[in-house]
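Aim 2 progress update. The chain analyzed this quarter is reproduced below.
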Amino acid sequence: MTEPQQFDDIGRLLASHARDSDHSAIVFGDTSITYGQLLAQVRHVAALLSDVPVRRGDRVLILAANTPAYLVNYLAVVELGAVFIPVHVDLAPPEISYIVQHAEPALVICDPELWSKLAEAGVPSGTPVFAPDWYQNDGYLAAPGSPADAPAYERHPDDDVLICYTSGTTSSPKGVTASHRVEIASASGFGTMWQITREDTFTVALPLSSLFGLHTASFVALAHGATILLLPRFNPVLVLEAIEAYRPTVFLGVPTMYAMMLEHVRQTGKRYDLSSIRLAVASGAALPSALKEGFRALLGVEIVEYYALSEIRPVFSPDLRMRMPVPEGSVGYLAPNTEARILDEHGKRVDDGNIGSLFLRAPSLMKSYFRDPERTAAAIRDGWFETGDLVRREGDFYFLAGRTRDQIICGGAKISALEVEDVLSRHEGVLAAAVIGVPDDKYGQLVRAVVVRREGADVTVEELAQHCAKSLAAYKIPRSFIFMARLPVGPTGKVLKRELEAALAA
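Predicted structure tokens:
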């Protein structure tokens, strides 16, 4: 079996798997693409990209749904030595506009049905915009390539290959930048802990526009010569029927996806054969124990959790090499080649069993935040990344204990409270606003806005929701609004959210 860590270049890694040219790389409905065909398509599209022109180091932005063309474009951009930038299809035009302006792409790839959203966001004059399957317009049909061919384009292990914008906990998104070396180190870490082989088939129902979908669910599979069962979108029935029909071995999703599948089974009473699944992984939000138990009882599958960040992945996970099972509530073992420090507020290491702030160092750590040296310097010091999360260690196992960052996780999506507060504050009837997360059995957390009206203003819940919808993706819009006379603040004027949450819970 070809091990990803043997390579420091994604193009050569892909070519190594194409030596077994008839092995399936991507299955999408009735379409099956072998590794030989995939390599041929990738090299063909890379050549066409160079004629656009897209040069080494240029950035290519994509706003599109799940199709094989998405992955072909991604790998072709990397083959050429350029940088791929996925943009989530649910983002609102102002959010897309920021990314486009900040990234300055040489090319934008966009689904035709999303062109109006892209047009509202704005694309710099002269920037070409193509549909995802643009490269098929010349009548090209995929054929097995020549895996032994040397890469035709200049690439280096530390070249940028991927920039994923994440809102994190700040009002402006951060562009997490990864290189060939980082992506391969990350894939190797997942592969080692999850014991991935070419015989595995990954069910990919996550959006490829997310790092979870593009990297963990897709690139990790391709890096090990495995097969991707790609679905156009997540739908609980579609996923359950696909698992029965195609017999994949791995499924990855956020807890909300598992909750929706379980709810479908409970409501309909229908049973599905999921016995082919050897590994069902959840990440992106806390996994309620009731959901885990219900899924095991009704669907016969044990869900395991892992912990990763956009900036470094994986971090903690069940490790299938280990005989000792992960205890309840733990996110597992520390990933290979990863170092962790758990420090108190004075920067001193805490003893096992005590809670502290998590700092990490690993080959899979991002290069930087794109065009953001200040936030990069604040996050990475002496090679150590400050996660902003609180954890405790008990022997070989790690447990999440909270977040130091002001962040809400709804259905696996990370939402910046500051970003939502900024939008609310733009309404003329709002004097002040604080945004918090409230627990929810299905989504993990829901966004709640606490608003102080301006004197004389009679702003309504409906009006505020409509105001937010103009600037925010649907999942970021508060699900509930509460009006208060004032917000609790500290000496510096900062809203005391813990006090606010306690007051609301009373």
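The longest helix spans residues 35-50. The domain at 4-179 is CATH 3.40.50.12780 (Rossmann fold). These observations will guide the mutagenesis experiments scheduled for the next reporting period.
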